[in-house]
Design a protein that fits this description.
The protein is mostly helical. Helices cover about 60% and strands about 10% of the residues. It has two domains: about 90 residues, no CATH class; about 60 residues, 2-Layer Sandwich (Alpha-Beta Plaits), CATH 3.30.70.
Length: about 170
């Protein structure tokens, strides 16, 4: 998944809010910086699933808080930025070419989307299985202790969001 365009719009919105004398809390700026770092990590190692969860978590937090602050400048201002945000997402999707997923592991059905998750004391196998089941996905435990969750693209995206929400609740 590519989060760079989404991050860029949020960064521009934050800059515009600050330029217009809206106080942007330090934790929002920190979350945006952390998201950028995690995006860089995911570009280097796209199989590092914890970075995807972290990116999603930080971007959702920043997005909701910045658009809340944008409303202080009026509905039209917030709506303009919402459209810019949506346009960036559409533009990125249209630029991507549909590529056949290379199967990184034996036994995965062709054409399925997947995510690989490193289990830890915070990310338990039972929770991954439960969320995968809720999202109508299949999952398998690998020898290295990681879980591969796979299925349709929309379902995998839904699963990532649910995992991010779960991690956010634990904090």
């Amino acid at each position: 998944m590519d989060y760079s365009d989404r991050w860029k719009v949020l960064e521009r919105l934050m800059t515009e809010l600050r330029r217009r004398q809206i106080n942007v809390p330090k934790e929002i700026m920190t979350s945006l910086k952390t998201a950028k770092t995690m995006i860089s990590i995911s570009e280097v190692d796209p199989k590092y699933s914890e970075s995807i969860l972290s990116i999603e978590d930080h971007l959702l937090t920043v997005e909701s808080r910045l658009f809340e602050l944008a409303e202080k400048l009026g509905h039209d201002f917030a709506e303009t930025w919402t459209k810019k945000f949506e346009k960036a997402q559409r533009r990125r999707r249209s630029q991507k070419k549909e590529a056949v997923n290379a199967l990184p592991f034996r036994g995965l059905p062709k054409g399925k989307h997947w995510i690989r998750i490193k289990l830890s004391s915070e990310i338990l196998e039972e929770k991954v299985k439960a969320l995968a089941s809720q999202s109508d996905l299949s999952c398998e435990l690998q020898k290295d202790g990681r879980m591969v969750v796979y299925g349709g693209k929309a379902e995998v995206q839904d699963f990532v969001k649910k995992m991010a929400e779960e991690q956010r609740r634990k904090r």
